[in-house]
Every structure is written in C-alpha cells, then in structure tokens.
Amino acid sequence: MGFCDCCFGVSREQRQEEDRLASEEARSRAAEAAQRRQEQFDNSAAGRAARAQMAAIKKQSDSASGGEPVLRWQMG
User: Fold this and answer.
1) Per-residue DSSP letters for 7-43?
2) Are 11 and 5 in contact (CB under 8 A)?
3) Percentage of the chain surpassing pLDDT 90?
4) Would you kindly state where each structural domain of the chain is located, as residue ranges?
5) Are 17 and 27 in contact (CB under 8 A)?
C-alpha cells in the first residue's frame, strides 16, 4: 500500500529540492578535494617530474618537425 508524502509533512517538491541541494554540496566538496589533490601532486616530486617530462616532450616535438608537417602527401 502506498503512502502519500503529504501525510508525513514533506512534499515531493521539498524533498527534491533538499536532494538537489545535497547533491550540489557534494559536488562542491568533491571539486574542492580534487583541487587539493591536484595542488599536492603539483608540489610533489612526482608532479615536478611529470611537468618537466611534458615540457621536454613538447620541446622535442616542436624541434623535431621544425614547423613542417610530420606526414606529407605526394602525388605520383
């Protein structure tokens, strides 16, 4: 047997709004935690090494091609 929400003093819209607010707060906390983890990684030795490696890869790829396309199309 189903019960209506009005019998318990909580409307469906009110419950949905509370759920929405709780979800929004949870997303906000998750974003803050992810930001903190990213900052900790960036400041760690592994983060510095990863940043240096990415810079080296970018420098190598920029100098290797010399501005020319890597693949060329030839007719014939």
Assistant:
1) GGT--HHHHHHHHHHHHHHHHHHHHHHHHHHHHHHHH
2) yes
3) 61
4) 10-58
5) no
Are 38 and 31 spatial neighbours (Cβ–Cβ below 8 Å)? no
Quote the CA–CA distance of 58 and 27 in Å, as a whole number.
Answer: 34
CA distance linking residue 38 with residue 30, whole number of Å = 12
Nearest-angstrom CA–CA distance, 64 and 24: 47
Q: For position 65, what pLDDT does the model report? A: 59
Tokens of 34: 């992810």
Structure tokens at 61: 């790829």
* Segments in the chain below pLDDT 50: none
